[in-house]
């Protein structure tokens, strides 16, 4: 089986075979600083809730394999004072992929360059429950302020 390098910190020995494009609809965002430094630098913590929807606009795989759900997450952000930011966190997703229902956890990482937020949400191995046990995959999203509150994503995944 070919080795697939997803990013610097995630290398898998499989290729994702299912793909869904969709949107994250941000329904709440509560961000507060917890450490403020000189030069407008600061650390913040954000509690975020998002609806996830994808009707299989770019679907390769079983018919009807859309996604619906809700993600609640906590992220830590660092703003260096130049209009950019980096962030990391975890989210819990409750919902369905096709006819499979359950929950799973994603590890979140990304950066904002002042114009575009680039995010990766990687499914944590072994975190799937119910019909989503064995889920592995990754959401990727590049969005601008114009996309708010519904940035687009691509989700590549497999379920064992």
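-> sequence recovered:
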């Amino acid at each position: 089986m070919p080795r697939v390098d997803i990013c610097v910190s995630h290398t898998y020995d499989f290729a994702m075979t299912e793909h869904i494009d969709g949107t994250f609809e941000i329904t709440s965002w509560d961000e507060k600083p917890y450490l403020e430094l000189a030069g407008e630098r600061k650390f913040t913590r954000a509690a975020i809730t998002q609806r996830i929807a994808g009707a299989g606009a770019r679907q390769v795989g079983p018919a009807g394999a859309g996604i619906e759900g809700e993600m609640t997450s906590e992220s830590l952000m660092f703003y260096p004072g130049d209009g950019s930011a980096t962030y990391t966190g975890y989210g819990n997703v409750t919902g369905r992929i096709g006819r499979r229902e359950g929950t799973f956890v994603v590890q979140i990482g990304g950066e904002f360059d002042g114009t575009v937020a680039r995010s990766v949400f990687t499914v944590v191995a072994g975190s799937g429950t119910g019909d989503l046990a064995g889920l592995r995959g990754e959401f990727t999203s590049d969005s601008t302020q114009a996309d708010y509150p519904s940035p687009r994503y691509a989700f590549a995944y497999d379920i064992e």
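The two ends are 15 Å apart (CA to CA).
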